[in-house]
Amino acid sequence: MPSNSPSLWVVATPLGNHGDLSPRAQEVLATVDMVLSEDTRRTGLLFKSTGVTAKKLVSFHDHNEEAKAPGIIAAMEEGQVFAIVSDAGMPLFSDPGYRLVKLAREKGIKVSVVPGPSAPLTALAASGIAPQPFTFVGFPPRKTNDQKKLFEEFSMLRTTIVFFERKNRLAATLKAAFEVLGPRELCVARELTKLHEEFILGRLEKHDEIPEDLLGEITVVIGPPESNGKTSEAELLALITEETEIGGKPKEIARRVKEEASGWTVKAVYQFMQDN
């Protein structure tokens, strides 16, 4: 490689269809001194399928990134060139690599990217849901309360939300999202670019209609809030009065009011109730 070439390449790899590995990506992966791979077996199969012959392929994932990064940086400073790939798509997005890139930048090491497949962008482009602004949140937390706190951070913003989720947690996560975000457009995308690629379009308030036996890797797209404005405090107070007459514990009332109001989280409604 030329002397002014990057010492670290961040290389996007196919989501599923190996034909999406670009000629430039193939050239870089075959030329660097070492390819850092999240899963060497999976990357090896990709290389075999596409005819890439890497000089050296080594494991580099979330559990060893912190320990390996300093040694890799030292090797770069001595003139070696590395490429990093994830299992699929663009590295760093819910995949390893962030620490290494950050450390390389801090050391003044040149970093460049070979762009390509990205699951969040692929799902967003095919969903028919407003593409900008959008927020990518990676994998939501496992616990329901933590999920709700995450969604509450974005509930007041007019942004589409994109995230990854595992099939066994999808139903619970969509339920938590609805309880915080309210009615919105929904797209559940799975097996992107693969033989059984599927885009399930629907509504977040009908999350229970999404099949629970989905297979493969899942990307979720939730549309922005559909109301034109936030429910005023006077209107909110009227809703609270109506729901209080129906009965229930304060938090139950707050949840019901939130479903009828726009721009308020359950927590904010509950706090308003306490203050008034």
Description:
- It is a single chain.
- The chain has 276 residues and is α/β, with parallel strands linked by helices.
- The chain has ten helices and ten strands.
- The chain has helices at residues 23-31, 40-50, 65-77, 98-106, 119-127, 144-154, 170-181, 233-246, 250-260, 266-275, and strands at residues 8-11, 34-37, 57-59, 82-85, 111-114, 134-136, 160-165, 185-190, 198-203, 218-222.
- The strands form two sheets. A five-stranded parallel sheet has the order 3-2-4-1-5.
- Strand 2 (34-37), helix 2 (40-50) and strand 3 (57-59) form a beta-alpha-beta unit.
- Helix 9 (250-260) packs across helix 10.
- The longest helix is centred in the last third of the chain and has 14 residues, at 233-246.
- The mean pLDDT is 92.
Strand content: 15-25%
Extended strand count: 10
Beginning-to-end CA distance, first to last residue: 68 Å
> What fraction, in percent, of the residue positions are helical?
25-40%
* Helix-strand string: EHEHEHEHEHEHEHEEEHHH
User: Largest beta sheet, briefly?
Assistant: 5 strands, parallel
Radius of gyration: 23 Å
Given helix and strand content, the structural type is alpha/beta
Q: What is the global morphology?
A: elongated
Secondary structure tally, helices: 10
**Mean pLDDT, all residues:** 92
Runs in which pLDDT lies below 50 for 5 or more consecutive residues are none
